[in-house]
Amino acid sequence: MPQNIQKIMSRFSSISLDEMNSVALMKRTDTKFVINKKQLVSILHSIEQEYRVLEINTDRVMSYSSLYFDTVDNKFYNDHHNGKNNRTKIRQRKYVESNLCFLEIKQKNGKGETNKTRIPVKDFELNLSKSSEAFIAETTNEDFNLEPSLWNGFNRITLVNLKSKERVTIDLNLSFKINETEKNYNDLVVVEVKQERFNRNSAIVKALKSLRQHPYSISKYCIGMISLYNDVKYNVFKKKLIKINNITA
User: Fold this and answer.
1) Helix, strand, coil % (nearest 5) of the chain?
2) What pairing do the DSSP bridges indicate for beta strands 27-36 and 188-195?
3) pLDDT digit string (tens) for 5-48?
4) Eight-class DSSP state of 236
5) Per-residue 3-state assignment (H helix, E strand, C coil) for 127-171
6) Which helix (H) or strand (E) holds 50?
7) What is the CATH number of the domain that holds 170?
8) Domain containing residue 199
9) 83-140 confidence digits (pLDDT tens)
10) Is the pTM of this model over 0.70?
11) Where is the VTC domain (predicted)?
12) CA separation for the pair 3, 6 (Å, rounded)
């Protein structure tokens, strides 16, 4: 993590996990932006009075590790690639500093809303347990035959707006792995603004707009898949991959 980002984060007021629960926004509108680390520095400078930063045990930049699951024919990936409105992602995610692990299901509907449901699990399950399979079946009303498809690691800064119901996640140092193949995007930053409905007057949205950065639909899972798998359809995502390579060049 660059020192200047750590230094800027130390100037933000902090918020605890318990305090942040009031802005959980499990049903929400997510708006993503992609920038590079240099742009992030100027954005953080401009918004430090508007947001508090999540702090857990003195940590303000958290480590996350995720294991995504998909069907043998990559249904979840293909649904996203093919622009299906109602789609699902299933993953296990570990919050490294707090040593908590969850099985999470994200379901997107045709209105652009994302519903996330989750249950705690002891640790990553390469073979899903009976209770995990039952939770997936009950939540999705489907009987999927799932297997691990992608590992993903990143660092995250979480900001909470002081005045409105808004959270912002800033993901850095993205890495993807399957078997022995790995791809890193160290200069890429994914900013996700989580609101009840999209608000262009948000301080971070304004800061991004001042750098000519506009909402950009992107999925870490899909980027990881096209970066590591040679046999998946990815023509719809070609422009996204070019954009990411330009950002990180």
Assistant:
1) 30, 40, 30
2) antiparallel
3) 888 999 999 999 888 876 666 667 889 999 999 999 999 999 99
4) G
5) CCCHHHHHHHHHHHCCCCCEEEEEEEEEEEEEEEECCCCEEEEEE
6) none
7) 2.40.320.10
8) 3-248
9) 898 999 999 999 998 889 999 999 988 777 778 899 999 999 999 999 999 999 999 9
10) yes
11) 27-229
12) 5
